[in-house]
Amino acid sequence: MIVNEQTTGNNKTKTMSSYLAPLVKQIPPSGIRKFFDLVGDNKDIITLGVGEPDFVTPWHMREACVYSLERGMTSYTSNAGMPKLREALSQYLETQFDTKYDPKDEIIVTVGGSEAIDLALRALIVPGDEILIPEPSYVAYSPIASIGGGIPVGVETYAKDQFKVTAEALEASITPKSKVVILCYPSNPTGAIMTYEDWLPIAEVIKKHDLIVIADEIYAELTYNQKHVSFASIPDMKDRTILVSGFSKAFAMTGWRIGYMCGHPELIAAMLKIHQYTVMCAPAMGQVAALEALTNGLGEKDRMVESYNQRRRLIVQGFRDIGLDCHEPQGAFYAFPSIQKTGISSDLFAERLLTENKVAAVPGNVFGPQGEGFLRCSYATSVSQLNEALERIGNFVYKVQKEG
């Protein structure tokens, strides 16, 4: 029996933590989840934190799942996913985003987009490889890269550039060890997007340095003033891009954990091997619901996007009325206001806002050093909640400024 470390004469027994890999022990827990554990079940707190739609999965998608269970569809599917779902994904991506993938050997259905990112990094990284990540960035990229033995390297983006990654910043971050670039647009946490013209100089840098791209496009459907441009659709980029997406955000299916990845057949074959040995396949009933979403759910998706757009305008104007600078997000469902005028750190601002004014938001530094001085606020909540949250934030900012 293993017990906690104790000293008995010259003998020592190990603590349980001593069995853990040092790399795993060094990785901090998710800054988002850690912060929102403080919220608990407190009903007085308005939460603008977790990146999750406030809509329930449309009823006919749920019904398709239930019907599949009633028919006994509880077995494994193909490792790569149901052929009908992969065929539907192939058609959807070509129609919506001008990216064409062969459903037979260029698409894998995964357990959420998160597994797809993990598969891609594990298949590509050897110890010492550098992974370039525009920051502020989604909190999982750097830890997953580190677990795979890679070295995450932040690429700075700025509010003055609408948080778009620039070719100059990317070029300045590249070394002989650089191998992979992770591009998340529309961006979590900033809501930034990239246009076709924005992508062209990035593509030139990618080609020049012979890099591989993981394009996390989970928010592709959530753009508001123009259509999303997939990096894989840029000339000469498809073969060196692993496209990652899923159903969580656009179709309000976070808990279903259905994502997908697309890419060159040789890359996909390698990632499929890891997928086979780790999860076997994505849940069959979730794949059925995803197929229903693509077949009959585009109307509901569009209505949800329009609702987010209304709330986007409300929250951005609300922050500006409070006196906080806030760039206008063109995608996803996050606002990223600057709190620098208050003179306090992101951590302290978020902690005090939660404890004193009962609003939960994510401190920007959770998303990397470039996020310091900002706050991530999800507007995937009701208009009434957003209005109340803005009033509470305004009262808090006024109080802090009086203290100064």
* Helix content, binned percent: 40-55%
Please state the average pLDDT score. Answer: 94
Structural class: alpha/beta
Strand content: 5-15%
**Radius of gyration from the alpha-carbon trace, in angstroms:** 22 Å
Q: Could you say which overall geometry the principal axes of the C-alpha atoms support?
A: globular
Low-confidence stretches: 1-8
Our count of helices gives 13
- Looking across the biggest beta sheet, what order are the strands in? 4-10-9-8-7-5-6
Largest sheet: 7 strands, mixed
Helices and strands, in order, run as EEHHEHHEHEHEHEHEEEHHHEHEEEH
- Distance N to C terminus: 57 Å
User: How many beta-strand elements?
Assistant: 14
Question: Can you characterise this structure?
Answer:
The structure is a single chain. This protein is α/β, with parallel strands linked by helices and 404 residues long. It is 40% helix and 13% strand. The chain has helices at 22-26, 31-36, 59-70, 83-97, 112-124, 141-147, 167-173, 196-208, 265-278, 284-296, 298-322, 346-357, 383-403, and strands at residues 7-8, 11-12, 46-47, 107-110, 130-135, 151-156, 178-184, 212-216, 241-246, 259-262, 334-335, 359-360, 362-363, 375-378. The strands form four sheets. A seven-stranded mixed sheet has the order 4-10-9-8-7-5-6, sandwiched between helices. Strands 11-14-13 form a three-stranded antiparallel sheet. Helix 5 (112-124) crosses helix 9 (265-278) and helix 11 packs parallel to helix 13. It is globular, with a radius of gyration of 22 Å.
